[in-house]
Amino acid sequence: MATTPAARLEELGLELPEVAAPAAAYQPTARTGSLVLTAGQLPVVDGALSATGKLGDAIGTEQGVQLARTCALNVLAAAASAAGGLDRVRIVKLTVFVASTSEFTEQHLVANGASELLGKVLAEHGTHARSAVGVASLPLDAPVEIEAVVEVLDH
Fold first, then answer.
1. What does the pLDDT look like over 77-132, one tens digit per residue?
2. Could you tell me the pTM of the whole model?
3. How far is CA 29 from the centre of its chain?
4. N or C: which end of the chain has fewer CB within 10 A?
5. Residue 50 within a domain
């Protein structure tokens, strides 16, 4: 088994994307002391949303899980950029926003897509507190948005 986050990412057949450009008047991250807060990260791949719509309508739970994984990769890219590398990142807290119909109640399962990926890539540094929240809509009609509080590790 791989011993570094970068090696585990490669083992999963994944790579960190470029940090997504802000879609409005904000920056991708803000740092205070040893903490980095990420802006909300959408399921953007190669500069475009990979899906639009709501969970419980056009999008099912399994697709939502995959979209949350994409958001988590974008969180990792932003966090690693601000922290000085992926090996200096520890996820403290995730907030997962899921655009969903009022009948949809599997936000926590969608959020597991992000949580499980972070655990696989960062091992013990990927274990975190989390909130999974259903919302009426998200920017650009994105189905999922994730923000994180990250600790920058000194080593």
1. 999 999 999 999 999 999 999 999 999 999 999 999 999 999 999 999 999 999 99
2. 0.96
3. 13
4. C
5. yes
Beta carbons of 75 and 148 less than 8 angstroms apart: yes
State the total domains in the chain. 1
Residue 119 has a pLDDT of: 98
The H or E element containing residue 132 is strand 129-135
Query: In Å, how far are 33, 36, 75, 87 from 83, measured between CA atoms?
Result: 11, 7, 12, 9
CA distance 81 to 61: 30
Residue 2, pLDDT > 80, answer no
Domain that holds residue 97: 5-14+35-152
C-alpha to C-alpha distance for 117 and 123, rounded to whole angstroms: 9
